[in-house]
Amino acid sequence: MPDTLGSPLAARDRGLVWHPYAPLDGPAPYAVEDASGVRLTLTSPDGTRYEVVDAMASWWCAVHGYGHPALDAAAHEQLDRFSHVMFGGLTHEPAVRLAERLTAMAPGPMAHVFFADSGSVSVEVALKLSLQYQAARGRPKRQRFLTVRGGYHGDTFAAMSVCDPVDGMHSAFPGALARQVFAPRPPAARLALTVTGEEVWETDRSALEAWSLEVQALAATHSDELAAVVVEPVLQGAGGMHVYHPDCLRVLRDVADEHGLLLVVDEIATGFGRTGRLFASEWADVVPDVMCVGKALTGGYLSLAAVLTTREVGGTITRSTFRALLHGPTFMANPLACAVANASVELVESSWKEQVPRVGRLLAEHLETAAALPHVTEVRTIGAVGVVQLTSPVDVPRVTRAAVERGLWVRPFRDLVYTMPPYVCTDDDVRLIAEGIVGAVAQVHG
Fold this sequence. Notes:
Blueprint: H1 9-13, E1 31-36, E2 39-43, E3 49-54, H2 57-60, H3 69-81, H4 93-105, E4 110-116, H5 119-136, E5 144-148, H6 157-161, E6 181-183, E7 189-193, E8 199-203, H7 205-222, E9 226-231, E10 235-236, E11 242-243, H8 246-259, E12 262-266, E13 290-293, E14 305-310, H9 311-318, H10 335-367, E15 376-382, E16 385-390, H11 396-405, E17 408-409, E18 416-419, H12 427-445
Parallel strand pairs: 3-17, 5-6, 5-9, 9-12, 12-13
Antiparallel strand pairs: 1-2, 2-3, 4-14, 7-8, 10-11, 13-14, 15-16, 16-18
C-alpha cells in the first residue's frame, strides 16, 4: 500500500475510487471532514475549508440531519446487543417491530414486508415478485412491465429496464436489458396554494385525457404479456424531478385492475413525507399492490429498503409452486439497520406534518425569484422539494463551487439545480438554501 496518508484526501481519491456516474479522472471531489445537524464541513480540492448546509440530505435520505441523538442512541443500543445475524431461519425484534410499523403506516391494507439491501434491490424484488404472482395465477407468459417515460428505479439490471429508455442507461447495455412497455411521460402538473392556503393541482386536462387514452390503449394491446405497472407516484425523481397530477396515478390503478396487473409504486424517494403526504400515493387516494420504500427509512445512517405487499399478493405467492419469494440477501433485515430505521420512522411520524409544509412554503417563496433569470425555464416545488430548471445543461462544477461559496451543498444534474433538504432545517437554513441556489444559478448561467 502506497504511503499517501500525508497527501490531500482528494488527491488520494482521484484515480483510485469510482464515484457515481463519474470517470476515474474526473474532477476531484470535496472531502467531508465532519457532519453535524444539517451541516457538512468540507475541504475543496484546492484546500479551502467550508461549512455548508446539505441541501441534498445526502441524496434525499438524511431527513433528520447528521448525528441525531435518537438515531445515534438506537445504533449504539443495537451494537451493544448484536449488529448482524442471518435472517434465514432466524428473526429478531428490530425487524419484526419495523415490519409492524411499516404495515401500520402504509396506505391501505399492506400486510407483508420483505427487507432488501437497497432501493434498487427492492425494485428487483418487486419485479421478481410480480412475475411469481402472475405465474401463480396461471399466467406465466406475463413477463413484461408497463411503465412511463421519465422514470428512474435504480441501477441494477431489472430496475434499469423500467427506467427511461432514452435518458436512462439502456444504450450502454444493448441487448442485456429486458424490453418493457413504455407509455409517455405523464403531463406536467403544478401544486399551487390558494390565498386561503388550500392545495390545488393544476394541469392541462386535455393533455391528461390524451395521455390516459394512450396508456389504456397500450395496456390493452399488451395485456396478455404484462405482469405489473411500475411507477414513481406523483414525482419522478432522478428522471428529471418531474411532477405530475394524481389523476395519472388513478388511471394506472384502473388500468392495472382492468387487466389483472399489479400496481407497483416506487416510493423510495417520495415516501416518508417528502412530497407533502406521508406516501405520495396518498395524493391520489390510491392503494398499491406492492410498494418499495428506502432512503429516509434509516435517516441516511445505513442502507436498507423494504417491499410491502397486500395480503392478497402475499397469499398468492404462498399458494404458488415455490411458496416462497425467491430472493434472500446476506444482509437481509440487518438488525443494526432495522433498529435505526425504527427510530427514524418514529421521528418521521411525530414531526413530518409540521416540518415538510414549513420547508415547502419557504422553498416556494424564496426560489421563485429564480423564475426571472434569463436562462431559467421553470421553478417548481412540491413538499420539501424545490427545483430550478434551466434552458440548457447545468455547468455542474461551476454551479457546485458557487453554491459552496454561498454556504450550501448541491448536486445538480442535467438541466436541474434542485434541493431536497433535511426536514429539520431551520427557517434560516431553508432561506440560505433557496437564496444560495438562485445566486449560484445567476452567477454561472446569468
